[in-house]
Amino acid sequence: MDGAGQCLVNCHSVLIRASPNLVLRSVVSLIGHALRIYQRFSRLRKELNERRAMRDEQATGEKRSARSAVASPFRDRNRQTRHCTCPSLIARHTTTRQKIIATGNQSSRGYTMIELVVVIVILGVIAAIAGPRFFTTRGFSERGYADEVASAMRVAQKIAVGSGCNVRLTITTTGYNAMQQAASGNLCNSASSTWSTVVRRYDGGLLTGTPPTDANVSGPATMVFNNRGSVVSGATNLTVGAYTLNLDAATGFVVVQ
After folding, report:
1. Fewest Cβ atoms closer than 10 Å to its Cβ: which of 13, 203, 246, 257?
2. Secondary structure (3-state) at 171
3. Closest CA to 240 of 169, 176, 167
């Protein structure tokens, strides 16, 4: 390996010992593996070039021997005859040698140190950007919980319309739940200030839920849906991490943005 490659290897050794961050250590380790691969590749390419040079030298010697063998019957001829034969042999030998050299140059062409360093830098940048996404699920958790709360809003609205009784949906940092006013016979007491009747989903489960441990939920927020599906009181928006739930008060339509 040349001086630049050895310098990168030394820098890699220092960084891998001084990097407490797991992602950075992974990037530095990746660079180290790439440098070791380049070192092996350089050594292998050098060996191949040496073998190719030996074959070319051997082929040149054989061609010289063949040329001497072809030219020997004409040594006793006059000078003109010899001058007519030798240039043609030299021309054929020169053409063949040029082809061999051109083929050797094409086959021995490899990656330069600059190209390898550029590739390593690009891989390092990609790993630094995409790596953290593999070690945290906050973005996925917040998006999933935002969709869950939006679904709870839609269910609460539909139950309010279907039952004819208002539904209050309360959302806090620890979860959400839906309640209706106290029952009065088969209906609810719209004048009651007590929200004591639990609201159930279509499958019979309670309309409640809790956020993931790594989700950042703003709150508290309370909204009341009437029998027409409108929001008669309470908040009309909520934030879950980087996502915002916008609730239209007139129609009860909710959008996650």
Report:
1. 203
2. strand
3. 176
Residue 23 DSSP SS3: helix
| Measured distance CA(214)–CA(217) in Å, rounded | 10
Domain range annotation of the chain? 3-134, 138-256
Instruction: Find, among 152, 164, 146, 148, the residue nearest to 229 by Cα.
Output: 164
Are 171 and 238 within 8 A, CB to CB?
yes
Is residue 179 within 8 A of residue 152, CB to CB? The reply is: no
Q: Which two tokens stand for residue 4?
A: 């630049």
Q: What is the pLDDT of residues 153-206, one digit of tens each?
A: 999 999 999 888 899 999 998 999 999 988 887 788 877 888 888 898 888 889
**In angstroms, rounded to a whole number, what is the distance separating the alpha carbons of residues 66 and 46?**
30
Q: Residue 205, Cβ neighbours under 10 Å: how many?
A: 9
Amino acid letter, 26: S
CA dihedral 254, 201, 240, 237 (to 10 degrees): 40
CATH superfamily of the 138-256 domain: minor pseudopilin epsh domain (3.55.40.10)
Alpha carbon distance 7, 10 (integer Å) = 5
- How far from the centroid of its chain's Cα atoms is residue 217's Cα? 27
